[in-house]
Amino acid sequence: MQESVLNLNITTLFINGTYLYEPDIILNLQTGHLGDDFFIPANLSTGDVFYDFRLGNVTITSSQQKTCVGAQRTVLIGTVVTTNNTETTTFEWDKQTGILVQAFSNYTDYNFTMATVANGTNIWQPQTPVDSTPFYVLITGIVIVIVAVAVILVWIKKVKVKS
Description:
The chain is of the alpha+beta class. The protein has 2 domains: 5-117, no CATH class; 130-163. It is built from 1 helix and 9 strands, in the order E-E-E-E-E-E-E-E-E-H. It has one helix spanning 133-162; strands at 5-13, 19-28, 49-52, 56-59, 62-68, 71-81, 87-94, 100-107, 112-117. The strands form 3 sheets. It has a 5-stranded antiparallel beta sheet with strand order 5-6-7-8-9, with no helix packed on it.
């Protein structure tokens, strides 16, 4: 990648088992040549607009925290409706990288709906769940020690009073 230009090699696996290999695809974030909007400028925010050569101006309409490919990420959301109202696509991009993590498209002329979902990446690592058991064991141990010390102190005080 050089500044706003991405050089891609894309391999698509179709449901019938065949592959389509597309080498040397060039995307340019400045000119809006974004392919299928798999990449947008990174670190946009709600209300920001970027240009797509095919779709025109695209506005980021909202953002939310979401688990994407095993990690909690901030996701930017934008919906695009073509001028003839035959295609509506809702995109979700990772804010930090600008990479598409999910898209849902509805093509009314073809009675066709398509879902695109990222199912792996090497850009961020999945978060492993935190095991809270050691924390609870530690707290329980501390409480037991405090109660034991209090009981011993009360017992010692009673023994001294009797003497």
